[in-house]
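User: I'm putting together notes for a lab meeting next week and I want to include a structural view of one of the chains we've been expressing. I don't have a solved structure, so I'd like a prediction I can at least talk through. The sequence is below, exactly as it appears in our construct file.
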Amino acid sequence: MISFRIAILATFLSATACVDMGPRGITLGEIESLSPPLGEGSLWPGLSTQGDKVVLSWQESDGGDTWSVKTAIIDDAGWGPAHTVASSTEARGFFVNWADFAGVEILEADLLVAHWLVRGPDRGYDYAIRVARSADGGLTWTDPWTPHTDETRTEHGFVSKFTLDDGGIGLVWLDARNSVDTDGKKGIPGAMGLRYRPLDRDGVPGSEALLDERVCDCCQTDVAVSASGPVVVYRDRSEGEVRDIYVTRLVDGQWTEGTPVYRDGWVIPACPINGPAVAAREDELVVAWFTGVGNQRKTQVAFSSDGGVHFGEPIRVDDGTSLGRVDVLWLESGSALVMWVERRPRVAEILVRQVWPDGRTGEELLVTTISAARDSGFPQMIRDGMGRVVFAWTETGNGRRVRVARTKEALR
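Assistant: Thanks for the context. Below is the predicted structure for the 412-residue chain, given as structure tokens.
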């Protein structure tokens, strides 16, 4: 059983992860527990930041059939109250899934945008996306909007959101509309697509665009906005079942054809449910991903100095038993911090490592232990306005609950 370790986390990390600064890279130092306004039944966190604010989102069950999407903001004054974005009803139940979960992003000041997933009449994997905005920090929300225009009873999910130059929001998602025939009944294997649609500052939607007509069925997408424009990363799927990580860029109003970050050549006739992560700093990009090529479970990162046009050779960061579930961010030193989950004999560990574009790596540092089961979800991390790193994850075992912690010092 995984115990509630957050109370002893700072002491544990002080003993294991605090080493002198030097060629081995950063240390986490002491990590402090944060206590967001959530309770038992909270699951699958998301993190977003703007200025001195960090936005936490999660899904929460009342112990019965009702689910809610909730959010709360922490700033220098501490946590604000939890706000409910949406709740399920019998007529419009949520699609609740450990890998494809709701999220809230902060665009500016008190402007937030949220998405969640709603089951269709066929239940199962018939589900759609809903999007809403809040102009008052999450207190009230607009009526939900659906970004996809098709009415097929298929999968629509794994959403990534990003800010546009005009203050609007861009949405990218996986869309299975082409997996059915015109009658909406007969499935065509391998037709999951990647789609995009913008929503301007006033909430007026633009046109849909198809970014890739054949991608992996259930791996997360991610987006970073470079100096040259938005960059989307995703897991592609070739006709020969090669499922490597690809990138597409928005250039002069048009999305480029998807190209591989690196040709791992991982052939797998099923979805690994393990998407990539990307972070941008001007025109520098870093992408982290999981691969199982050659029956080796790897977490790797690759860097680009030209906005994602070209990438360097991958740098491996794991111990050989990686479960993936990656995240990545830039540090002020020009290095990146990559996070992943590593399988151990009885538990799993959330680990981070500093990586430089020239291939150097720092020490492997432990954030905490979690269950290796799927319902522990995908841990998240983000830097706040002070340069400190905020971590969020789902703790399972004796109940399920989202945990949040933060380094006491800025990581440079």
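A couple of points you could mention at the meeting. The longest helix spans residues 6-16. Residues 60-214 form a domain with the Neuraminidase fold (CATH 2.120.10.10).

User: Perfect, that's what I needed.
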